[in-house]
Design brief:
Blueprint (H helix, E strand, L loop, with lengths): L6 H25 L10 E7 L2 E3 L2 E5 L4 E7 L6 E5 L8 E5 L4 E6 L5 E6 L16 E7 L4
Parallel strand pairs: 1-4, 3-9
Antiparallel strand pairs: 1-2, 4-7, 5-6, 5-8, 8-9
Length: 143
Amino acid sequence: MQTSIPSGSLTKRLQRTSALSFLLILVVIGSRSQGAQSDNEVIEILLGSYEFIPNQIRLTAGQSAKLRLVNTDSIIPHNFTIEDNTGELDLSIDVPAGESVDIHLKPTRPGRYVIYCANKMLFMTSHRDHGMEGTLIVEPSSP
């Protein structure tokens, strides 16, 4: 015995699923914005295909920030490196393939810092040489 679903009911279900999918896409796009962080915001940075998405990250001096580094490659490990000659933001974090790592930063000095992947395969050029580089911008805090 077969049961049929009224076509109006199926149409409503499909419309509801489409609307929910659209809202989810908007939430994901909004979470990848490049604006300055708020106290509870998690800035997600995708590492994969020899790029950072977004490749420009904005933070505010004196405010804590949580960065979630997500390696989207299933085989290739990546790295998140910031070089800062003062040592304040000098770090190098490995992110294994398919995994994520959360880091907390509280920069105090405004400025522009280069971020890059320092990984390299034996006898090959580095991921940075393949274009896996971006910018961390620390903006002055509002008075």
